[in-house]
Predict the 3D structure of the following.
Amino acid sequence: MKQIDKPIERIRKEVFGVSQVAFAEIAGTTQGSVSRWENGDQKPDLTEMDSIRKHAHEMGIAWDDRWFFELPQPATDFHNIESSSGDAEAAA
């Protein structure tokens, strides 16, 4: 399997396991924007990053914002893990 060396592409493929079109829906943008993120021509804005983060939490993925800038580990490390930030909110 080819190693993915771009953070957004790795998030899309290995963490979420979705197409560019589906990832665009998650982020609230277009497929063209996702393509530009993956090519390094643009970066997601704060609203788009927040949408991606919220969707990850809804899927039970323990999200780390560093993944927008660093390569995350394969998705198998992230699914079915309770988020510590979600636990703190539930306890409050």
